[in-house]
Design a protein that fits this description.
174 residues; three-stranded antiparallel β-sheet; 23% strand; 6 helices; alpha+beta
Length: 174
């Protein structure tokens, strides 16, 4: 498949409207066993894809011939990748796509709290210099490097999760 054909296929996967069942949940760490994270921000956004979109996306990114997903690894001190089932007991696929990342952002952005989408005077997140320069930062994209994790490799009806990282994905708005 050529690069243009890949981009065309990628843009077709999430071409429909967002599901009406999307729901966002902000995690209150005071109500969990992870009280050390109280005051931190985390959230989940469920049902971002329809069942068909999910199946199409998984079919597109999965190894050919319904092959096995690679076991998730951790980076060792020397930069090598090693399996560590104590910290990563799942299978994981990395897939790079600006097209899919942009489509996902379009769907999730309305569900992210405005104070997270736009950061002003947030030195714990942006560092001191944007505060000193009176800059405002806004989410402008997701990382193109998407991660898909099969959380229960032994199950025939696995739960697939996708982690979205926001590293280097904000831009100055002022």
């Amino acid at each position: 498949m050529t690069a243009n054909e890949m981009m065309g296929k990628e843009s077709e996967i999430l071409s429909g409207p967002a599901p009406a069942s999307i729901k966002a949940h902000i995690i209150d760490f005071n109500e969990t066993d992870l009280k050390d994270y109280a005051g931190s921000f985390a959230m989940t956004i469920e049902n971002v894809l329809t069942q068909k979109e999910c199946a199409d996306l998984l079919s597109f990114i999965s190894p050919p011939g319904n092959g096995a997903w690679p076991v998730a690894t951790v980076t060792a001190y020397n930069g090598s990748q090693i399996p560590d089932p104590k910290s990563r007991l799942c299978e994981r696929i990395f897939y790079t796509s600006k097209v899919i990342a942009d489509q996902l952002l379009e769907r999730i952005l309305p569900h992210i709290p405005p104070e997270v989408v736009t950061l002003k005077n947030a030195p714990d997140i942006t560092g001191q210099y944007p505060v000193i320069r009176k800059e405002t930062w806004r989410i402008c994209r997701l990382r193109d490097e998407l991660r898909f994790s099969n959380m229960d490799p032994a199950s025939t009806s696995s739960h697939i999760a996708m982690a979205i990282s926001s590293t280097r994905t904000a831009q100055r708005a002022s």
